[in-house]
Amino acid sequence: MATIWRRACVACTRSKRQCTKSVPACRRCQDKGIPCEYPPPRRALLDAGAAPATPSPSTADGPANPPPATNTNTSSNDPGPSSLDFPPLQLSQSDLVDDTGCRPAVLTDSPQCGLADDDANALPGSWFLAPESWVADYTLPPNQPATEQHCMLQRFTNCVRSWLWRWVTEGSSPLHHRFLYREKMPRYVQDAYTAVSMYHAAAARGGGGTADARATAIRVLDDRVTQLLEDQALEASLSCAAGREMDVFDHLSRVQALLTYQTIRLLDGDIQMRAQAESLVPTLFLWTRQLLDSAKENLTRPTRHLANHVSGSGSDSEEDIVWRAWILVESVRRTWLVANYLQEIYLYLKRGWGECPGRVTITMRTGLWDATSPYAWSRACRDGGTLFLPTTHTESLFYEMGPADVDEFSMLIVELSYGAERIERWLGESKESEERASLTLDGWDGTTVS
Description:
This protein is mainly α. Helices cover about 50% and strands about 0% of the residues. The protein has 15 helices and two strands. The protein has helices at about 10-15, 25-30, 75, 145-170, 185-205, 210-240, 250-265, 270-280, 280-295, 305, 320-350, 375-385, 395-400, 410-420, 420-440, and strands spanning about 5, 40-45. α9 packs antiparallel against α11 (about 320-350). The longest helix has about 35 residues, at about 320-350.
């Protein structure tokens, strides 16, 4: 029989949105609570004419020309029973933008060319918008001794807590880019920002605050979380009534705000705060899923549309636009990872088991996240590459790159993916290579150095 092709649902087609094509309803229709109807399916034809009425011997066991797969790595597309039920990004050839010939290479990637937007404002170098880079990989990490695994997970949660404090004291962290909220910081993000400062001053254990100050700070945290949820419910109602949707910046900022409160309250140790935070674990999972879906829907929009959400150098050059768009997109990727990892790690430590949080592609090259200007960022991309590696190729870092080439955030994610022992071996081998190179340079191996 001819192969059945499922097209996007009527609602997504009418709104010109990416459809997950799930049954009985796609993800977008489920989130919006609207009916999901699919048009009559197409059939893959054996040739340019109509399909034969009866199968020929060559097609009796299957289609002669099966549709081309957009991603041959089925392990990364199929979340499996242990996933968070994130739908894979199902793309047909018509869903992809025109220029898909330039993909991020494994280790020699360079932003010389990228995906072109279907718009006059399309810019070269938008390599970070590749559709396949948004497909979550749910490959399970290697088994490790319980003690080592507990230490590794504890190290991750401690790093996330320290990033909140660095955000407040230094203006940025591996999770919070210094330019993301430079000109536009939503009120609920401002509340989360000040809550971190208040918590460390009055409520953090070992911080020197009195019992009364801690009780007041906990009450303020609870009120701000409640206000965030009420504001988001109101905003959703108004948006639905007006027929508009939240943009990716709004999704990102509310996830970062709730993630801030979840990090504080889940890891503080106070029973009441922890119980309140546990009740919001499904909410943060939902918001992160909606964040990723919103980012996917923006793949075919102009790069300038993404860049307008982030403050830059004040110029309107292509270099500045691509840099600001990358800041937004990379912030989405990192926030999605941390939110899922943090909550799944907490549930694992509480219950003794957890689901695989999944991974998406991130930019790993040292110096790109901390670049302070479009020129510094683009120069670093040209000189050293981006290390924007598919999750299935991350292991090649251990053989062709050194630990110094990977930034702090990426190193932590790689450790969660491959284990602390593999990272320790990588660090040791890199140090030995440097020592051997130093000995050769100084002539200690008996050679003559001119």
